[in-house]
Amino acid sequence: MEMSDRSPRKFRIVAAWASSVCLLVYLLISLCFTLVYGGDVDSSIILNLNEFIPEGNVIVIIGLILSAVAYIGTYPFTVYPVRVAVVTILKPKRPEFVGVITVTVVVILTYIIAACLPDISILLGVVGAISGSILCFLAPGGFNVAISKSKRLFAPENAKYTSIFMFGCFTLVVGTSVAAFQVVDYYLP
Fold it and tell me: Any coiled-coil ranges, and where (predicted)?
């Protein structure tokens, strides 16, 4: 539906349907796993599955199947903005080809990270450190500098925004370093 006659209205309808279906699936997943595990859940539900899948626990298997459906349904939501951003920034002669390469690289990197780092709490720490710094400090400071008269980071009238931006750089480095040390500690206890 979204791919033919594109319009913001059609996109909103598709996004609303997809989000609703994903929400319903996630609610069913949480219900299945809550019935089996209660509050005794590891940082990644996948770590809990090892105990129950060989037994053939029907509720766990239903939850696992629903998890696969949810991952397949939501993964494009995370990859599509990356593809659009790369194609928009690079403005290549063959945007379709660059889009395919971008998606392929993102999928491969995601798989490598998932295979090498099975504990999702560490990964969420890295994502939180990076996105928190960008959303709270770097983006607001950078945007305000970009819309200022001088458009220069170190201009006197941008001192407040520059300090916010610099603090964002500091939190980005510190937060990412802490998350990186957690990764190292995970492999070298």
Answer: none
23/125: higher pLDDT: 23
CB 127 within 8 A of CB 183: no
Q: Quick check: helix, strand or coil at residue 43? A: coil
Sign of CA dihedral 33, 37, 40, 46: negative
Match 């201009």 to its residue by tokens: 155
Residue 157, in any domain of the structure: yes
Contacts of 35 (CB under 8 A, 6+ apart): 59
Q: Report the number of distinct structural domains present in the chain.
A: 1
Longest Cα–Cα distance of the chain, Å, equals 67
Q: Quick check: is 187 in a domain?
A: yes
CA 84-85-86 angle, to 5 degrees, is 95
The answer to pTM > 0.90 is: no
- Cα 21 from Cα 132, distance rounded (Å): 28
- Which phi and psi (to 5°) does residue 43 adopt? -60, -25
Residue 163: give the domain boundaries: 118-189
